[in-house]
Specification:
alpha/beta; 263 residues; 8-stranded mixed β-sheet; single chain; 19% strand
Length: 263
Amino acid sequence: MTTTPHDRWINAPGGRLFTRTWEPQTACCDIPIILFHDSLGCVELWRSFPAALCSATQRRVIAYDRLGYGRSEQCTAAPLHSFIDDEPTTSFAALHAELPFEKFIALGHSVGGGMAVHCAGHYAEQCIVLITIAAQSINERRTRQGIQDAQAVFEAPEQFAKLEKYHGEKARWVLNAWTDTWLHPAFEQWSLRPALERVMCPTLVLHGENDEYGSHRQPEQIARYVNGPAHCELLPGIHHVPHREAESLVVQLISQFMSRVRS
């Protein structure tokens, strides 16, 4: 079943944000799924997943580039160490104010999963479902080692060019925003737990068994500390990008979970 994407720029503190919305042919309801991208991500890097999710759930799917990423305007300042906590009152607040939705489903990948958690707790009456994919709940040694390994990979010009393809002249800022923050000694004790305890809605936690940036402790803590009903799936043989490595499976798990929630 085909879906129709629509692009739009919205105004936010610091500059304009790029958004893309996938519309189903016949929507089941007015409650959209909002996608929160990862540390090196953007709208384009969701690839075919939003359209597949839109078709399977018959819901609008909305993705946006945070300030400094993808097609959104440039950001010159380094992120604050509170950047994950701040998402409900910064980029997402602008999205929520300008696009026509009240209630929503929050779906985030990697650091976007942490942002989705914060938005689910901050907008507890509006967020009806939370879905995290390969999200971090703590900054463990495996997380930092994975980032250090990726940092070394991106020193190769041909690898850095892959970032430039999606972020243009902002690519160096995007990479540094990720590595400098997560590897900073002051960020080592970061934890998502206080935000998890504010989540009241049903939560689906998806995590790859072979995730380079987080052990099984990451999804287990998310499922443990949310205050709504939670279901956790550890996906065998999958690494850090389950929705790209096993798109059909991830879409199926999300669709099934949302069907159970509605029933």
